[in-house]
């Protein structure tokens, strides 16, 4: 009883252990799955991207703008003109997603009247332009270089709750814009964004950290200035397990943040965001609907100057477009959120689905268990997408889906291990009697073990050993059996190496066919290659036996291709997989014809036509006994026959004979003078001398 239970319990036990390890890894090491999780979230957003959004426009300083207005960095005079154009077009708010260069020193001091008035005029046109329209300017936090002074604030920021967290943007240096531009702008925010390791930007910070203090990012400042909000309130949750560890209040809006002060970006396609070139704005060609009463973000997108990152939609976006996407999302108030409970819920989903599959494995087998596993995985994946589609919740459905697949794999592999020993035993037993490819085919398709047949084009190889009968009469039985077994083992091994099916062994003769039971489109090439390999082996084997004093004869081989009926034939007590048809008899006749021509391999034209890459020379148009139509027959050419010139000389003479030319006899006589040992040359020379013509050869045996 115990022995019967062990195999049955092994798959569920192994699957349960694997499930426990998977759940432990999900809960204790969630970072292990971060890359895979991010790709799934990218797929969510690609299938369901954000739609049309808030009135935000991007102005890009591209290659055309640099060609028209000079190389980067632009002087503040040019940037000032750009802002003036936008202000004149009615822009509601303008933000610079770049850090302007310092203004050049004036050639002369300002007039005395201006100095004595006590009013400090701005030194640069950019500062003047920034004052014309509600504006925001950016700075960057850096780990190397920059200023050690804290960045200035344009608005207050109060922290409520626990102590300030330590964010990824905790950097010690600042790269600030010119002081006059800072004073003229209504907002100042950090430009820093942090792509993931794969180069894709999935989150944008709304707060950054310098020292122990939090500062707003550029996106947060643009939202504050555009909406006329006052100071910020950042709430830090005391409970680390809460769904929203950080949140920021900007005017009437409260935005949930992750533990690093970021929001997940739900990208809209780049084509949905209006983008203008700076050149057309400077030329005064400003489309009023794309600027008036809209928030305009200015950035650099020229290759080699402006930084570009890849979105989750696979698009390369400039910094200005990235900030515009984040600002549009803030204005609409729809933010993807990955709650803290997601990790536990994902582990629970994987555990419940896997346990259900384990329980069902006691009742279900094979395809039913596969279908059940697929349905469970599909349900988890569909549920994850539904949560994103309806609530913008980032639930990792891939990890529990993989857990269910892993448990199913464990169940399947353990079940396979239990039955594999018996299957291997059966396969080894049958392979000792029939071809391995036939055994494999029937193991995969047991339904074909039926008494039926089908028409199919196949190729055949038949061999016979010359002088076998005298060898049997002279050799001792024990020695003969060992000799014949070694010989046949070599032939069968070669046949199996070429995926041939061993049809039968009759004494010293072997019959192999190709493209049955498994269809092989290149069956003719396989058959010919197999025949050539057998010929090489048999010639070497015979030579070795002769050196040992054993009069071992040559192996004659016939190769032919044709349509036959193949299938299982016999009765209920025994099945025999065979091929029936005239091509089998033709192959046998071709094999026996070698003794008349002095060749070892005879290949029909039907096979040769499908093997143009093999070097062959024609034997003749054979008219076999009982046949009316001749069969073009060939034999392989060796490299020695090609190098010696035999192939060329024989081909020339054969071509003349084929045309029934009177010069054919002289050509074969010349060929025989050079190659007197060649059997085919002697054959055709004798025929022509006896009054024959053409290349037809009638065989009566």
TrEMBL record:
Keywords: Membrane, Transmembrane, Transmembrane helix. CDD domains: CHD (cd07302). The chain crosses the membrane at residues 341-360, 367-388, 400-418. Gene3D superfamilies: Nucleotide cyclase. Residues 459-591 form the Guanylate cyclase domain. It comes from the Bacteria. This is Guanylate cyclase domain-containing protein. The keyword Ion transport does not apply. PROSITE patterns: GUANYLATE_CYCLASE_2 (PS50125). It comes from Thiohalocapsa halophila.
């Amino acid at each position: 009883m115990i022995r019967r239970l062990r195999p049955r319990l092994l798959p569920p036990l192994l699957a349960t252990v694997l499930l426990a390890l998977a759940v432990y890894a999900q809960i204790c090491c969630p970072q292990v799955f971060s890359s895979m999780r991010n790709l799934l979230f990218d797929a969510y957003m690609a299938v369901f991207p954000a739609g049309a959004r808030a009135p935000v426009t991007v102005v890009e300083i591209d290659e055309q703008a640099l060609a028209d207005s000079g190389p980067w960095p632009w002087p503040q005079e040019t940037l000032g003109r750009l802002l003036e154009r936008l202000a004149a077009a009615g822009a509601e708010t303008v933000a610079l997603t770049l850090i302007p260069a310092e203004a050049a020193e004036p050639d002369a001091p300002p007039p005395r009247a201006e100095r004595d008035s006590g009013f400090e005029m701005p030194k640069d046109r950019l500062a003047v332009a920034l004052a014309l329209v509600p504006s925001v300017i950016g700075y960057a936090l850096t780990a190397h270089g920059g200023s050690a002074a804290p960045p200035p604030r344009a608005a207050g920021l109060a922290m409520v709750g626990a102590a300030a967290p330590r964010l990824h943007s905790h950097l010690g240096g600042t790269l600030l814009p010119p002081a006059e531009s800072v004073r003229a702008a209504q907002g100042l925010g950090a430009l820093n964004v942090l792509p993931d390791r794969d180069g894709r930007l999935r989150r944008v910070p709304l707060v950054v950290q310098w020292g122990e203090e939090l500062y707003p990012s550029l996106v947060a400042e643009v939202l504050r200035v555009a909406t006329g909000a006052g100071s910020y309130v950042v709430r830090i949750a005391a409970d680390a397990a809460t769904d929203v560890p950080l949140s920021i209040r900007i005017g009437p809006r409260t935005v949930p943040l992750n533990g690093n002060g970021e929001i997940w970006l739900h990208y809209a396609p780049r084509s949905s965001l209006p983008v203008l070139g700076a050149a057309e704005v400077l030329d005064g060609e400003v489309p009023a609907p794309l600027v008036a009463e809209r928030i305009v973000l200015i950035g650099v997108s020229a290759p080699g100057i402006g930084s570009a990152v890849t979105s989750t939609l696979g698009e390369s976006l400039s910094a200005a477009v990235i900030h515009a996407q984040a600002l549009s999302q803030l204005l609409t108030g729809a933010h993807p959120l990955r709650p803290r409970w997601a990790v536990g819920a994902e582990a629970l989903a994987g555990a419940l689905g896997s346990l259900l599959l384990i329980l069902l494995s006691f009742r279900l087998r094979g395809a039913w268990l596969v279908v059940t596993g697929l349905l469970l995985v599909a349900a988890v994946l569909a549920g994850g997408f539904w949560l994103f589609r309806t609530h913008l919740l980032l639930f990792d459905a891939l990890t529990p889906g993989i857990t269910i697949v892993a448990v199913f794999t464990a169940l399947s592999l353990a079940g396979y291990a239990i039955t594999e020993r018996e299957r291997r035993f059966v396969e080894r037993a049958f392979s000792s009697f029939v071809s391995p490819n036939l055994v494999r085919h029937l193991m995969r398709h047991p339904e074909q073990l039926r008494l039926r047949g089908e028409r199919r084009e196949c190729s055949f190889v038949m061999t016979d050993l010359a002088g076998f009968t005298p060898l049997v009469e002279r050799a001792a039985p024990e020695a003969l059996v060992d000799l014949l077994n070694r010989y046949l083992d070599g032939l069968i091994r070669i046949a199996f190496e070429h995926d041939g099916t061993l049809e039968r062994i009759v004494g010293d003769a072997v019959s192999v066919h190709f493209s049955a039971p498994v269809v092989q489109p290149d069956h003719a090439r396989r058959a010919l290659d197999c025949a050539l390999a057998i010929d090489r082996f048999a010639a070497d084997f015979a030579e070795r036996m002769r050196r040992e004093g054993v009069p071992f004869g040559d192996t004659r081989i016939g190769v032919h291709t044709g349509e036959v009926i193949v299938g299982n034939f016999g009765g209920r007590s025994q099945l025999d997989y065979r091929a029936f048809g005239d091509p089998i008899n033709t192959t046998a006749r071709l094999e026996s014809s070698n003794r008349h021509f002095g060749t070892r391999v005879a290949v029909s034209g039907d096979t040769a036509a499908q093997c143009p890459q093999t070097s062959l020379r024609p034997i003749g148009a054979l008219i076999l006994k009982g046949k009316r139509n001749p069969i073009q027959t060939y034999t392989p050419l060796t490299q020695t026959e090609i190098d010696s010139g035999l192939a060329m000389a024989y081909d020339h003479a054969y071509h003349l004979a084929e045309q029934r030319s009177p010069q054919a006899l002289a050509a074969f006589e010349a060929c025989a003078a050079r190659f007197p040992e060649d059997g085919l040359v002697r054959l055709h020379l004798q025929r022509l001398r006896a009054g024959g013509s053409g290349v037809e050869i009638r065989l009566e045996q």
